[in-house]
Design goal:
By secondary structure, the protein is of the alpha/beta class. About 45% of the residues lie in helices and about 15% in strands. Helix 11 crosses helix 15. It is globular, with a radius of gyration of 21 Å. The relative contact order is 0.17. It binds pyridoxal-5'-phosphate (PLP). The site of pyridoxal-5'-phosphate has 12 residues, from helix 4.
Length: about 375
C-alpha cells in the first residue's frame, strides 16, 4: 500500500498538464501586457461559473476580505458577527480595519454558524453577519438570509472552503456558495478546493448596490477589473496564478465530485458504529468535502491522532482553539465551538485515496476507539 497523504494538491497538475502548460506559455508571452489578460479571463470565467455580477481576483483571501470590508465603508467599531469555530484570519482582518468581531456559536452536526446564536448577539452596532461555509458546505443560509433581511444587516460569505457547493434556497432556486449574500470572498491557497500554486483570492460581488460602491457598475466588466488591478497593485493576483486557476476552474465540479465519492466510502465504512460522528449535512446544501471531519470523545481525540500517526496515517485538527477564547473571552460562553475544538479530527481526503487505504484508516480508527472507550 502506498503512503497515505492528507491531501494531494499536485494531482490536478498531473491531470490537466497540457492545458495548464498551454495557459502558462500564453501567460509568459503576455508578460509585459499591462491589461492583465489572464486576470481578466479568470474574473470572467469565475463570474460565469458563479453567475454573479462581478468577480475581482486579488492576491490573498485576506486581501479579498479587507477589500470587501473597505468597500462597505463601515463605521469604526461596527460589529461583524462570525463563527467562533473556524479560520482565525478573518477576525484579525476585521480588527485591523477598526471593526469589532463578535463571535457566535456553531451547530453541533455541521459546525457552521448557528442562526439562533447570531440572533442573540445582534446589537445596534451590528452591521454584518459573516458565515463561513465550513469544510465544503454552506452554512444555514435560509435562516441567515432571513435574519439579515429582517435586521437589515449585510451578509458577507466566506466561501473559501465550499467553492462549487450548491444551496437550494426557500422557493427552490439553486445557487452556488458565495452568491447568496451581498458580498463574498474566497482564498485560493493550495489547500482550498480551487487552488493556486501559491497565493490568490477573489472578491465576489452579488448585489447591484455593491457594484456601485465598487464604482465599477457602469463599466463593462473587463474595463472595471483592469482599473481595479491597475490601481491596487499590492493586492493584484500574479498572472501565472490567475492562468492556473482559470484552467482548474473548468474542472472544479469534477474535482469536487471525486472527493464526494471518496467521502462516501468513509461514510459507508463508518455506518455501523456509534463510536464516532461522521460529517453532518446542512439541509439543502451539497457538501464538497474539503475535509472529512469526524467527532470522537474528547478524552480520546489526541490519543487517536497519535495512534494514527504511529500507524503512518496523517490527520489534522481544524480548529484546535475557538476564536472567542483566542480573543480572551472566558470558557463556557459558546459551548458547541468549545466542545468541537476538543473532539474534531479530520482524516486524509483526496481524490487519489484508494479504497484499500480508506479501509485501513477506518480499521485503525475503529479498533482504537473500541479498545479505549
Ligand atoms: C484558508 C482560509 C482563509 C485564508 O486565506 P488566505 O489566502 O491565507 O488569506 C480564509 N478563510 C477560510 C475559510 C480559509 O479556509
Amino acid at each position: 500500500m502506498e503512503d497515505i497523504k492528507m491531501g494531494d494538491a499536485k494531482a490536478p497538475y498531473a491531470a490537466l498538464k497540457s492545458e495548464l502548460d498551454d495557459a502558462f506559455q500564453l501567460a509568459m508571452e503576455n508578460m509585459a501586457n499591462p491589461d492583465v489578460p489572464q486576470v481578466l479571463k479568470l474574473a470572467q470565467t469565475l463570474q460565469d461559473y458563479l453567475q454573479v455580477r462581478q468577480v475581482v481576483p486579488c492576491s490573498h483571501g485576506a486581501d479579498a476580505l479587507v477589500l470587501a470590508l473597505q468597500t462597505l465603508q463601515l463605521p469604526q467599531q461596527a460589529e461583524v458577527i462570525l463563527p467562533a469555530f473556524g479560520d482565525s484570519f478573518a477576525a484579525g482582518a476585521i480588527k485591523r480595519l477598526g471593526l469589532t468581531p463578535v463571535f457566535a456559536d456553531v451547530l453541533p452536526t455541521t459546525f457552521t454558524l448557528d442562526p439562533v446564536s447570531v440572533a442573540k448577539l445582534i446589537t445596534d452596532k451590528t452591521v454584518a453577519i459573516m458565515p463561513m461555509h465550513l469544510f465544503g458546505q454552506c452554512a444555514d443560509m435560509a435562516q441567515l438570509l432571513a435574519l439579515a433581511e429582517t435586521q437589515q444587516l449585510l451578509l458577507l460569505e466566506d466561501t473559501t472552503q465550499a467553492l462549487g457547493a450548491v444551496y437550494r434556497l426557500p422557493g427552490g432556486k439553486e445557487q452556488r456558495a458565495g452568491t447568496m449574500g451581498h458580498l463574498a470572498f474566497a482564498s485560493l491557497l493550495p489547500t482550498k478546493p480551487l487552488a493556486c500554486q501559491d497565493e490568490g483570492g477573489a472578491v465576489i460581488v452579488n448585489s447591484q448596490n455593491l457594484c456601485d460602491t465598487f464604482q465599477i457598475a457602469e463599466l463593462p466588466w473587463a474595463t472595471a477589473a483592469v482599473q481595479f488591478q491597475k490601481t491596487t497593485t499590492d493586492t493584484k493576483i500574479a498572472n501565472l496564478q490567475a492562468a492556473m486557476v482559470e484552467v482548474k476552474l473548468r474542472y472544479l465540479d469534477q474535482f469536487n465530485q471525486a472527493r464526494q465519492e471518496v467521502a462516501a466510502v468513509y461514510d459507508d465504512l463508518f455506518k455501523d458504529t456509534s463510536l464516532l460522528q461522521i460529517p453532518g449535512h446542512t439541509p439543502n446544501s451539497t457538501l464538497i468535502y474539503l475535509q472529512y471531519t469526524i467527532k470522537v470523545p474528547a478524552t480520546l481525540r489526541d490519543k487517536l491522532k497519535q495512534h494514527l500517526q504511529d500507524n503512518y496515517i496523517p490527520s489534522a485538527v481544524y480548529y484546535p482553539e475557538p476564536l472567542h477564547l483566542q480573543d480572551g473571552q472566558t470558557p463556557g460562553s459558546l459551548p458547541v465551538a468549545e466542545e468541537l475544538a476538543k473532539t474534531v479530527l479530520s482524516l486524509p481526503l483526496h481524490a487519489g485515496l484508494t479504497v484499500e487505504q480508506q479501509t485501513y484508516v477506518a480499521q485503525q480508527v475503529l479498533s482504537f476507539l473500541e479498545k479505549n472507550l
